[in-house]
Amino acid sequence: MVIWAKYYYPAVSHDSWPYLFKYYGNNILFYQFYFILGGWAWINYEPLTKWLLQKKKLVFTVTALAAAGTLVLYQFNVQILHLSQSPPVLSPAPAF
Predict the structure, then answer these.
(1) So what's the pLDDT on residue 81?
(2) How does DSSP classify residue 77?
């Protein structure tokens, strides 16, 4: 799905799409998930902290793999796809 979103989705015409899908990156409704998740984490702080400490090896492993994957993706974008540095190739924000 990520490959579709990164390489296929930008080439598709979005002119006839509904507003919520056409401007998904600029719509506050899509960011409400993070707000609600933060509220849930605050309310369940003790159990969440306990669970994270129990699974700390898994959490650190996933974090390290995500960091390594970001570096690999950067090299792929620059060396294979020859994407320029402006805007930054890992930037989720569109360039205007």
Answers:
(1) 81
(2) I
